Structure to design on (75 residues):
């Protein structure tokens, strides 16, 4: 996340992740392969990923967790 994601925002039942142009597919594949228990799946465009939270998981709580990954290792 920290390497490619620019923003992470909750939108209804989805989390929207933006990336630089051309990076969304690679990041979405990595998220899918990670098998996070709160994520049902992703849909990626060129610079945007929709992340679907599983039932019982709020988009806001998932956004908070994913946003935390952006800050890991930051000074």
């Amino acid at each position: 996340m920290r390497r490619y994601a620019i923003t992470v925002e909750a939108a209804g039942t989805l989390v929207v992740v933006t990336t630089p142009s051309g990076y969304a597919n690679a990041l979405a594949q990595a998220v899918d392969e990670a098998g996070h228990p709160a994520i049902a799946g992703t849909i990626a465009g060129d610079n945007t990923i929709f992340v679907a939270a599983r039932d019982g998981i709020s988009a806001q709580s998932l956004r908070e967790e994913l946003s935390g990954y952006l800050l890991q290792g930051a000074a």
Observations:
- Residues 7-71 form a domain with the Gyrase A; domain 2 fold (CATH 3.30.1360.40).
- The chain has a mean pLDDT of 91.
- The two ends are 16 Å apart (CA to CA).
- Residues 15 and 51 are 5 Å apart (CA to CA).
